[in-house]
Amino acid sequence: MKVTEHLQNQQNKTLFSIEILPPVKGESIQNIFSAVDTLMEFKPVFIDVTYHREEYVYKEIQAGLLKKELTRKRPGTVAICAALMNRYKVETVPHIICGGFSKEETENALIDLHFLGIDNVLVLRGDPVKSEGVFTAHPEGHRYATDLLGQVVSMNKGKYLDNNIQNAEATNFCVGVAAYPEKHFEAPNLYQDLKYLKMKIEMGADYIVTQMFFDNQAYFDFVKQCRDIGINVPIIPGLKPLTTKGQLSALPRTFHIDMPNDLVKEVEKCKDNEAVKQVGIEWCIQQSKELIAFGVPCLHYYTMSKSTAIKEVASAIF
Description:
318 residues, alpha/beta, TIM Barrel, eight-stranded parallel barrel, two-stranded antiparallel ribbon, 11 helices, 10 strands, globular
């Protein structure tokens, strides 16, 4: 079932969804199941599973000499989606990214998803390789999320990379895209960011999920700006409870977001991370309640594959 179908059938009830990370290579999928098990009582309508591009590691070869190699530390997105669907009978949304993939590899991944009965994808450009400051596309891949979106939309029309394929079966993916209420850090201004977001909707994207934010006013303003320029698809807010004092600087540095003064002041009063976690949970609960009152169709929580804080929030909301 498509994400948009769930949203259309919500019957004035705000839905619950989560995002998880694949386990690090070598870890058991049981770690994922353990995290998801504790949240299933809140009936998530879909579970996003992130996709992680390759990164460089240095391996010692002899006498202190190092060899630079590429590795993908968190593989398994497609298989995890299939396993979650089989175990929990829940919709899954694999992330599809530009970075590190050729168009052919992307097409093959989408074919696998289609054969597995996975109806939804979230299309993203993805991050640069960790050791590189600037995003570099695969030589035979996509540079921009709009290009990747175009490939998915084409397959939904039965158009594959090989133009000689006749009477190809069309896929039927519901396509989500990401948005940034506080602007993508690479965009020169919010106007340009919104322009490209609108382009994605006009190309065929079905819904939007936002980056995490801690100030609801940023989301409210963003939704109004979207509606004012004709973006009328569902805009699902993404939330994450703060759990450690170090996240006050780590989250803005990593995700390019602002922390509200009131939240920062409360966290700075905390003597340890357990106190920070309680502040973060309460802040997220209040955010969630205000967003529900605003009429959001769904609340999407970034778990980082750790469910304890999300469970406390969900217990108070759902």
